Amino acid sequence: MQTQEENKSVEQIEDITGITCIYIPVNNVYESVKWYQQNLGCQPTKHNKVEPGMEICILRFTDQNGNFPGAGLRQPVPALFLMGGGGGATRAAGTLGFTFDKGNRQPVACFTTPRIQEMYNRFRKNGVNVVTEIPENRPCGPNFKFCDPDGNMFELWQP
């Protein structure tokens, strides 16, 4: 039988503290930047000049004041790395997602929002490919799936 002293846990450093980025293959980084800005509200960082022909762009989500949350080990929302064209991602563009549950296509990332209906309406108004409707009385909260212009599937959820 273990004594109380033996049961005391040793303080350990965490192995994983968050997700810093999601890599997204796209056919046209410049056009995709505009789409992600308009529909998800993320903004390019200073790391890449936004211009036609660009091959990669880092997008981050801003807080309610338009500022990037502090970088470091714990970031509330991962950055999006749009990769394409000359960078060799063209062949993979549109492939994010997989099938599960009797062959239904599944998203690779789920974003959270406090305003699911507002986001859904914005997406519809902007012509976003909304794949599913918002279900009623879902026990874990409303959600819907959507695709970016390259067909990469994501989900939006309101906990």
Structure description:
By secondary structure, the chain is of the alpha+beta class. It folds into two domains: 17-93, 2-Layer Sandwich (Signal recognition particle alu RNA binding heterodimer, srp9/1), CATH 3.30.720.120; 95-159, 2,3-Dihydroxybiphenyl 1,2-Dioxygenase, domain 1, CATH 3.10.180.10. The protein is 16% helix and 26% strand. The protein contains three helices and ten strands. It has helices at 4-7, 29-40, 116-125; strands at residues 21-26, 42-44, 56-61, 79-84, 98-100, 104-106, 110-112, 129-130, 143-147, 153-157. A four-stranded mixed sheet has the order 1-4-3-2, with helices on one face. Strands 7-10-9-8 form a four-stranded mixed sheet, covered by helices on one side.
Radius of gyration: 19 Å
> Strand-and-helix sequence, N→C?
HEHEEEEEEHEEE
Look at the helices and sheets and give the structural class: alpha+beta
Number of helices: 3
Q: Give the beta-strand count.
A: 10
CATH fold-type name of the largest domain: Signal recognition particle alu RNA binding heterodimer, srp9/1
What's the end-to-end separation, in Å?
A: 43 Å
The residue fraction in helices comes out at 10-25%
The amount of beta strand, in percent, is: 25-35%
Q: For the report, how would you describe the main beta sheet? A: 4 strands, mixed
Low-pLDDT stretches: none
**Average pLDDT, to the nearest integer?**
83
How would you describe the shape? globular
Instruction: Give the C-level CATH assignment of the largest domain.
Output: Alpha Beta
Largest sheet, spatial ordering of strands: 1-4-3-2
CATH architecture of the largest domain: 2-Layer Sandwich
The number of domains: 2
